[in-house]
Amino acid sequence: MHLIIPKSYDPKLSIKETQEAIRYIRETFQDEFGKQLNLSRLTAPMFVEKSTGLNDNLNGVEKPVSFTMADMGDSQIEIVHSLAKWKRVALKKNGFQMHEGLYTNMNAIRKDEDLDNFHSAYVDQWDWEKIIAKDERTIDTLKSTVRTIFKVIKHMEHEVWYKFPQAVHHLPDEIHFITTQELEDMYPEMTPRERENAISKKLGCVFLMKIGGALKSGKRHDGRAPDYDDWELNGDIMFWYEPLQQAIEISSMGVRVDAASMQKQLKIAHAEDRLSLPYHKMIMNGELPYTIGGGIGQSRLCMLLLGKAHVGEVQTSIWPQAMIDQCEAANIHLL
């Protein structure tokens, strides 16, 4: 358990007012976000069959919560880690056309998460996916989409300021782009997390690109599953978060793999056995559309916009009693 307690913390809003602000941010953001990216809202599953290969494997070490069902025989059912793969299949299944997309509420349980101010065992985010043309699988497409998302987040800052002026946390006016290799070159003696903090503090908001592959040092900046993001065309949106004096990641996103990039990445990850799974076969056979997509943390966005010290102030989850006690003593009221 790692907990940061800011000095003289003032939550600004009561618990009741915070709940009202959470509802307002979530409802307003998803409407504007869907409009700007041409996305329609779909309902999504909380669990999938393991045999489909649709679950997100994250870094490959996290174990999903799984169970069997009375009417499903011995089939293993898994609570989703994210909907990264499911969304691409849903676009095809539901007849979406070029430059159309979907967004949905994604709720996950990540029981192996290390709990701290930003991380909870309960993950709630907007998962989204949009069809693009093959020749749009480019850095320009990625950057343009990132700028649109940043614009919507800035729009929400103004909306929140109008309704809750005493509580809004002000954000930088610009997002900057940098690759993981450029970041390693800048700060070779730092750990990846220290680099993220350093560049976020320097620039205010960054989109850190090309996550998953090995750097010149031979190490990876961070892990990425090999079968949804193209590691050359992905990244994270990060803000410098003054209340906790560190970077906060709001979104992980990217252009999705085609057959060639997935095969290459599966080989690097020693996970070529996945090529026998239904989802992976569809990618290899060109049966799914080319897409760009990602996830935007709902609770983290509320935390960012309201200047909260702990994600537990904007979502209901389970926390160690020691963390609850320390937070309460510091005027941090976990829901």
Automatic annotation (TrEMBL):
**Domain Aminoacyl-transfer RNA synthetases class-II family profile, chain residue ranges per copy:** 23-320
Pathway(s) annotated for this protein in UniProt:
Amino-acid biosynthesis; L-asparagine biosynthesis; L-asparagine from L-aspartate (ammonia route): step 1/1
Q: Which reaction does it catalyse?
A: L-aspartate + NH4(+) + ATP = L-asparagine + AMP + diphosphate + H(+)
Enzyme nomenclature, EC number: 6.3.1.1
Q: Sorted alphabetically, which NCBIfam families does this protein's record hold?
A: asnA
Instruction: Give the protein's recorded name.
Output: Aspartate--ammonia ligase
Keyword rRNA processing belongs to the record: no
InterPro entries linked to this entry: aa-tRNA-synth_II, aa-tRNA-synth_II/BPL/LPL, AsnA
Species annotation: Levilactobacillus parabrevis ATCC 53295
For this protein, the record's CDD domains field holds: AsnA
Listed under GO biological process in this entry are: L-asparagine biosynthetic process
Q: What class of enzyme is it?
A: ligase
* GO cellular component terms given for this protein: cytosol
Report a single Gene Ontology molecular function. catalytic activity, acting on a protein
Stated family: Belongs to the class-II aminoacyl-tRNA synthetase family. AsnA subfamily.
Q: Which UniProt keywords apply?
A: Amino-acid biosynthesis, Asparagine biosynthesis, ATP-binding, Cytoplasm, Ligase, Nucleotide-binding
- Give the UniProt subcellular location, in the record's own words: Cytoplasm
